[in-house]
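Q: Here's a chain of 152 amino acids. Please give me its 3D structure as tokens.
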Amino acid sequence: MKKTTFDKALLGFLALVAILFMGVTFSSCSSDDDEVPVKKKKEVSAIVGTWKQNIAEKVGEENGEVVPEKPGPVYEVYKEDGTYLKTNDLNNKEAKVEEGKFTVKNDSLFVEVQEEKAVRKDAFKFTINENKLSKQQNNEEIATYTRFKVTP
């Protein structure tokens, strides 16, 4: 008889453990859980990156002779944080031509350049086709660029 009492006690204990396990399992899967906020990825403009200006050789005259002039490279760097840099040498901070901030709305580019005594504001229309950037001002193309680096 002792064996059956022990079996009943063990069966009761196992039933209690099973009930507690089910209670914990179902309460942890409650639909009342707070939703975890999903971070939205900040939309990055296609203009972000480093662009090298496409410059044709200039032809000048010197003493009646045609002399080709090879211009130096010009780079425009648009960073994800909204900063803008125009430079002749990406590795030399002293070679910067201008720097400032930029914003993009649709196909419009707004650049604010800090000059010595004031802030110059420029507005451009732009188009990007694959790795080519075209900037227009007053309905005229003023410069074309080739993507040099995707991320500065």
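Q: Can you summarize the key feature?
A: The chain has a mean pLDDT of 80.
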